[in-house]
Amino acid sequence: MARRTSQEPVPEVVVMRLPLYLRALNHIEDRVDIISSQELGESLQLTPAQIRKDLSYFGKFGKQGRGYNVKTLVQELKHILGLEREWKMVLVGAGRLGRAILDYARFPRSGFKVVAAFDADPSVVGKKVAGVPVLQVSELSATVAREGIAIGIVSVPPPQAQQVIDELVHAGVKAILNYAPLAARVPPGVKLRDIDPVVAAQSMTFYLSQEAAVEEFSPY
Amino acid sequence: MARRTSQEPVPEVVVMRLPLYLRALNHIEDRVDIISSQELGESLQLTPAQIRKDLSYFGKFGKQGRGYNVKTLVQELKHILGLEREWKMVLVGAGRLGRAILDYARFPRSGFKVVAAFDADPSVVGKKVAGVPVLQVSELSATVAREGIAIGIVSVPPPQAQQVIDELVHAGVKAILNYAPLAARVPPGVKLRDIDPVVAAQSMTFYLSQEAAVEEFSPY
Predict the structure, then answer these.
(1) Does the distance separating the beta carbons of B44 and A18 come in below 8 Å?
(2) Order of all β-strands in the sheet with A128-129
(3) What tens digit of pLDDT does each residue of A106-132 get?
(4) Shortest CA distance to A210 belongs to which of B217, B18, B179, B24?
(5) Strand partners of residue B118
(6) Separation between Cα atoms, residue A148 and residue A173, nearest integer Å
(7) pTM for the full model?
(8) Contact B207 A15 (CB under 8 A)
(9) Of B110, B202, B211, the CB nearest to A83
(10) A1 pLDDT band (50/70/90 cuts)?
């Protein structure tokens, strides 16, 4: 395994790109043995220099001019990203959105296993959704602590989200995947990623309406 | 309405933050009249200076020391982001993930209306999902062109995704919300945003496993 050769902290933007490298390599690993940083860069719309620089934080990969062995690089990236093990997760909020997340086959396929879901609605508590038991919210902290769960998915409505996140953090969760549309707070040492497709769409309509404005003022 | 006072292009990171401002303001607009950049910054974990700088691209908002009128700022942000109108969208891929997206109530509530879904599976074509008709993929280009649709949602499996995106772009779509887990390509002038919760989760396990490694080597 490659070893970190420096103690220089890895910039977060680099950490954000590593899963994209892994995803691209996963797509080709069954049919490609060796890939150059040029080819990998093209598939990711990054420069070869960027890819070499990103990977250089984690030691030496491949030999100059010979490209990367795809299977080896996949293994190294999985090692760096902590994906050689399965990660247990809990999900809070088993409503419509929560059920869709529990149903999302890519989580289990990628080594993320939701072991329990929690909901305040007594009519779903005690049932299973996509094979995952739905428990009472009052059991959340005890379950997280007992199972040593490090990752929580939050899919409750915004008014409940911060309280749920605080409870997850208090129980020992160190990473939150937040689907609730709000800017949630976590203490230092806890990671948070937001999934908000509406925000993503709204950051594109900015450009669409700029274009419309240009067309409006066009003399043709 | 505030007017762009300079022709300086707005950096994409600023455009990405504007929907977050709007989301935060939407949460409070019914109960707060005036908000300082300090308070808005706290709710978004940004500095007041950052917020003032971001908004300064679009003219003058609020008076020095008096804060922003929440309702006015909401209107201005909606104007800047092109959200004073409804945006029609098409969705391609009405499988499990596609159905969950069609079922996602925040799109229509935020002014995004999926007018048609497309799928290759004859058993779903002709049906409605969440009130949206599912049509044959062969009708995609004609529908996009006829309805003047600018935004496409892609929720097909990765092997089909690039082809679907090319077809959407060819038909006139200028913005793609891509749920397929691959690095898709779009020509200049077309915007693309990826929604990939697995990538988001994997960028957090990096930190979780760093922490585990530190604990392993701890002398306690």
Answers:
(1) no
(2) A128-129, A132-136, A112-119, A87-92, A151-154, A175-178, A191-194
(3) 999 999 999 999 999 999 999 999 999
(4) B18
(5) B92, B135
(6) 8
(7) 0.92
(8) yes
(9) B202
(10) low
